[in-house]
Structures are given as C-alpha cells and as structure tokens.
Amino acid sequence: MSWGNGSKNSGLDPWKVLGISEDSDIASIKRAYRRLVRTCHPDLFPHDPVRSRRFFQITEAYKKISSLLLVNASVLEPDNEDDYDAVSFSMSGDGYSFLYIEVSMEDAFWGKRVSVALQGPEAKCPSCDGLGYKWHGERPLCPVCGGKGYKEYALKNAPIRIMCKTCSATGFSNQIKCRLCMGRGYIKREREVFIRLPRGIMPGTTLRIDTIDGLDINSTFIEVGIRLPDGWKFEGYDIVSKLRLDLWDALLGAKINIMTIDGPYLLRIPPGTNYGQVFIIEERGWIKRDGTRGDHKIEIELALPKTPPPPHVRAMLKRLREIWPVEAVEGRSGFMIEALPLPDSSMFLSQV
Description:
By secondary structure, the chain is α+β, with helices and mostly antiparallel strands. 23% of the residues lie in helices and 33% in strands.
C-alpha cells in the first residue's frame, strides 16, 4: 500500500531518509526525525561536514513529508448553496467520510496545525487474507455443507442456494473470527494528515477536504468542536465564564486573578458585589474574521460557608442584619438584592 512519496523529482526518498514506512503515523515520523537529528546536529558536531550534510538531508526529508501530509481544509459555509448541495450529495453517495474532532481552545483561536486520521478505501484484511476467519492447524470441512459454503434446496424444481450459517459460508469448521477485521474480511485504511484550522474557527464549523492526488483517502467532512476550560461557554464571539466569589470578598471587595484567552487578568471586585452580577472585559473574547475581538464576560456566583455559624457568630450576624439591612429592589430581571451603605464598623463592634 502506497500513499505517495512525493519525491519523484527530488532525488532522495524522504521516507527512506528517515528510515520509516509510508504508512507511518505522525507520532512515528516525529520520533524518527528527533532521533536522527540527535546523531548529526551541527551544535553537537560543529566540525563534521559529513554529519552536517546528513543533518540537512534529514531536515529536508522531514519538511517534505510534513508538506505532503498538510492537506487543505476549506470551511463549509451554511449559507452557500453549493456547499449545501455537496453535503446533501455526499450523505447519499459513496466515497465520503464524516468525522468529528475536538481541538484545544488555543489551537482554534490561533488557527494552528492539528492532525486528523482520514479514511481511505477499504482493503483486504492482511491478517485473514480477506476470509474474515482464521484457523489453528487443520481446516476440517463443514459437516453441514460439506465444504461448499452453502446448502442447496429445490423449490418447484428450481435449485436454490442458501449460505451455510454453520461455517459462515467458509466451507470449513472450527474457524475463529479474525480480530483485526471482526469477520468482515476487509479493513478501513487510515492516513494521518495535518490540517490547518482557520484562525478563530467557531464550534460546530464543518471543514471539507476533497480527494487528494498522491494520498489514497476519501473526501471528508469534519465537524470541529472546541475544548473550553470548565465553566466557559460561547455567546456569539463573547466568552462567558463563572467566578465563584467568597461571600466576604463580595461584601468587602477584592482583587482576583482570573484566566482569559490572553492569560491572567487582575479583576477588581468592588464592595457589595451581588450574585449574578456580570463584569465585562472588553476585547478579551473570541477573534472574528476581520481581526476584531468579542468580550470576556464574568458571571459572579457566591460561595457561602458550608457549616452553620457558631452561636457567637450567629449573634453577630443577627446584629449586623439589624444595623445593615438589605432591600429588595425590582430590576430588569425580576428582583435582585441590593445592600444599603456599609455602616461604621466601630458602631457595630460597640453594640455586640
């Protein structure tokens, strides 16, 4: 099986230079490259011209293989009639594959290169030679069909052949289902390739890869999912995350480091912050096609103590409620709790 070496006009076969087969996956290619460059890197052997030439050959071979395996993936536009027709046709035809991949937030945001395993045409199973079954030792004939693989019946003087279920139409008994092809007799070939994600690709976007000359793979539609940190979600091009805030930080105010796509951000929490309050960090959200950014929204949740207050703390809280009441104020979304201005602490302490 050959996936194409891409080196007909380049002299050296890049696969042979790296000492790997054309069916090698990307991890094996990288391991071979790293292992070989350690034996001839100019920094390790600065005065050895033979090793320097070898290093150049290895580097060029790795670049050629990487270039060969970098396939073009175009974005399927849902509003494009031609793209819609292509998906409709492929779902009813052969030679197309459908994949779902999940990529990291960083790879999707910056549009990095990721690896995917694309399916090629089906091939005869090399383990069972296409039979679907294997035998240990001799292959005795099936006692039911006598080795024919089928049973014959006569229906109104017309012969009918029915597959023998005892031997699964192999004609032999004591067979064992092939573990590689699971009795099908064929396997689906795969080729691991690189695709470059469009910068700022959105979750649910479908990419299309057409049949590629030199790589025996099917045309493929790939739906892309994005792994976000826990508690994060998309709202259009805005990123929404939750911040679980200590009750006392919400009452007294605090400065808290939060994580954004661009890294840590010091968020100032003003005194009297309420549950459900949203802080907006402008232009720290997802990137759009024109290069502008959405916002990062932080929704506040409050963390209360997990245990009931001790008696003396309970008395303090009751007194605090008397001198610092809260008022229910009707807002745009029903009712929200709004605190009155914080009283003077000396007055509180003197009355406890």
